[in-house]
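Subject: Protein record for review, amino acid sequence with backbone structure tokens
Why sent: The fold of this protein is of interest and is recorded here as tokens.
Enclosed: The protein record, placed directly beneath this head.
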Amino acid sequence: MFALSIRTLKSVAVLPILLFTLTPGFAQRNFDDVEIRTEQVADNIYVLFGAGGNIGLAVGEDAAYLIDDQYAPLSEKIMTAINKVTDKPLKFLVNTHWHGDHTGGNANFAKAGTTLIAHENVRKRLGSPSERNGQVREASPEVALPEITFTEDLTLHLGQGQSMHVMHVNDAHTDGDSYIYFPEANVIHMGDNFANGGFPYIDLNSGGDIEGFVKNLNMALFIVDENTKIIPGHGPVTNRETLKAYRDMLETLRDRVKAAQSSGKSLELALSMGLSKEWDADFGAGFIDSEAIITSIYRSLE
């Protein structure tokens, strides 16, 4: 069982589709063939790729710290990957937001002794039932809810002069989004405020907002420099130049949709205008296609 401690588990022998524990077929999804790949981005910081949101791993002086945890069936594989990096106990797990491909393993890690941390809206949304397109997601059990919540920011001190700054940002992907920044290591995990290689998902049902999205990307550009390792919520680790191009793309789409809307064009007409045509080939083949991004921006601006 996964509820074994990290030390006991150690003695035992790219843009994926986003979300959803909301889909009816999730329970039948087969994760047997999923492999957890680890990439080191700084002396004490790693990224774990699997199925779902990118996982961040920081190794401190006395403990390890995790950012997001993908899906519940992958928890043991994730622990195995962590234990190949370090045998230090996993002390805290920070959720960047509430979606199931980033929080699905919460209960497993909590049962193993890890303390869950997130913005207060993450706890509220995980702890409440929700409905999308007629499909109901039941409230998560208490054990899967963040034990420590915050409203603005908090800092975890990892030892040896290293820190992990968790900051709530503007409503964008959801209303509970956080960046996790390692100033000494010059690494930032942006959660799903950045999907490297695909159009962003603006979850309007969870408080998502296009204006907040653009503001958050500008905020990240202010924080990072040319040497910063940027961990997106999905897609490969990248740099400031790629992030800036992503911001420029989304800002342009926002402005085009706003202009169409201001001139009285309906959503149907806006969808027929090819507003995202320059980026459709590179960004529109994933979870969010050109119609979905224009629709979500239009609805967000209403």
Observations:
- Confidence is low (pLDDT under 50) at residues 1-27.
- Residues 240-262 form the longest helix (23 residues).
- Residues 161 and 184 are 8 Å apart (CA to CA).
- The domain at 6-245 is CATH 3.60.15.10 (Metallo-beta-lactamase; Chain A).
